[in-house]
Design goal:
Chains A, B, C: InterPro entries: Gly_transporter (IPR005115). 3 copies of one chain form a homotrimer. Chain A is an all-alpha fold. The first copy, chain A, has one domain (2-197). The first copy, chain A, contains 9 helices and no strands. In chain A, helix 1 (2-23) crosses helix 2 (28-50), helix 1 (2-23) packs across helix 5 and helix 6 (114-135) runs antiparallel to helix 7. The A-B interface holds A 48-51, 110, 112-113, 115-116, 119, 130, 134, 137-140, 142-145, 148-150, 193-201, 204 and B 18, 21-22, 24-31, 33-34, 44, 48, 51, 53-55, 58-59, 61, 64, 74-79, 134-137.
Chain lengths: 204, 204, 204
């Protein structure tokens, strides 16, 4: 089940990257690269920073096949996929929840403190998109719009809170994933966003 | 003493990042991220490249608290801090001196050659700002304006020169830090800058 | 022989970076940095991801001298070098071939699968240029123009195909390098390029 979700997350992040690159009129190689870094960039940066090398995808090339599938789907069906924005959002959100959990677990595995684990979860889920935006020469959308990373952080805090209650990880993981996914969809529906950084100063 | 300076450097780099992000109208999460990478990005890249993992701030979460303080100060007082440009410059310069020394020391600790240590010192002091500018979609200010990194390099060379004179590190470190800080302030006052790269060609 | 080519590749990549930075009106330090990352960025990212740390150039500072030479040549002769575009292309192409081989070999040395080795070869040859473009605030040219990375991939595949034929690496390496170099020059002459990502959709 979890593995299926991991595959889904990787695939959808790859498609999200590929569609952005197609929209930016990159060539086929550029599209493939952006798909790749969007899907695997977050985990790669995480692995490099905690010293888990060679990084994950080098030891399990299934990820590369999944990204290739996402790339091909995007190339052939990109107009159709654009119209599927809502379904894409759902998949993207699944990726967000699953990747946050994976990042959290790697941090725990390396004996890092909860605060650092929450950062690693958020990084795993969001940094691929940041690299995508940098490569496409945009200010990362992550820093500008929507509740997104905030939910990863909230999910991470919930994870450690539930651990305090002595629940097993098998129970906690789905709760956290569902929490992130549900709130992301609600946030999207009601168009929630974080205030910009100068909000307090404005009221001075 | 040194630790106090390290805290000061981290705090001021975090504020410098946060103010840039607020100016760019990023949301609160974006501001926090930019504060984080500005303060810890240089050290993170250094640690990753020399293989000191998990990287430093993961093992000492005090850094995260310091950045959080810098973030909160920036959010609440950003208009006031903007007016404090000169004081900010002083703090920023302290960060520059201290971070250069920290980078130098890590290089020596890993048995790397002096040239590489000087690069690591410069990288530690300046790369956070480079990442900040990339994330904010600017050509890094480091490459365009003022004597800045040049002073880190000069400070690093001075460090190894003084070591040749058999001085102890306890004597060398403050000399190098004061050298960097003093020259940076003088450079700022007299508006020194490096010539642009095509300077020689122009005279052809 | 191989080492001479490695030196040539590093030198020419450094010049290519320096010329871009001069064109972008960066200051001398900025020009040096861009020369540095263009020449060594690909190998650095590769080493960090496979856990070969401290990264290569830290243990062999000859690379730093080579880059310094490239930097000085660019500063003094930049107008002349611009006119030498065709010769530069030849050298750049040698770098492409050699760096691909180096990346392939590091991957094999670390026992990684052929697919990953091909990615590492391509990364080593091309990622320095990607970092150069990001630092200069451009969408990486790699993703937009010409057959370039595609040839690294093709060369990598050829490498493993020839290995299946039981040829020794001493025979395979020059064949692969010549393959990449020859096709790159032909591609340049006939102005081949990859279709952009939305090509199939357009025909819908």
């Amino acid at each position: 089940m979890f593995e299926l979700l991991d595959v889904t997350g990787t695939l959808v992040f790859a498609i999200s990257g590929a569609l952005t690159a197609i929209y930016k009129k990159l060539d086929l190689f550029g599209v493939y690269c952006i798909a790749f870094v969007t899907a695997l960039g977050g985990g790669t940066v995480r692995d490099v920073m905690i010293g888990r090398t060679p990084v994950g995808w080098m030891l399990d090339i299934d990820y590369i096949y999944i990204i290739t599938v996402g790339f091909l789907l995007s190339i052939v069906f990109n107009r159709y996929l654009e119209r599927l924005r809502i379904s894409m959002l759902l998949f993207d959100t699944i990726g967000l929840g699953v990747f946050t959990l994976i990042g959290l677990e790697k941090g725990i595995e390396f004996g890092l403190s909860p605060v650092v684990c929450v950062i690693l979860g958020t990084l795993t889920a969001t940094f691929g998109g940041v690299i995508r935006d940098i490569l496409c020469n945009e200010i990362p959308v992550l820093f500008r719009k929507e509740i997104y990373a905030t939910l990863c952080i909230a999910g991470g805090i919930l994870f450690f809170f539930l651990q305090q209650l002595q629940l097993s990880d098998d129970v906690i993981s789905p709760i956290v994933a569902i929490f992130i996914i549900a709130f992301r969809l609600i946030a999207f529906k009601y168009n929630w966003s974080l205030p910009i950084g100068s909000v307090f100063a404005k009221k001075e």
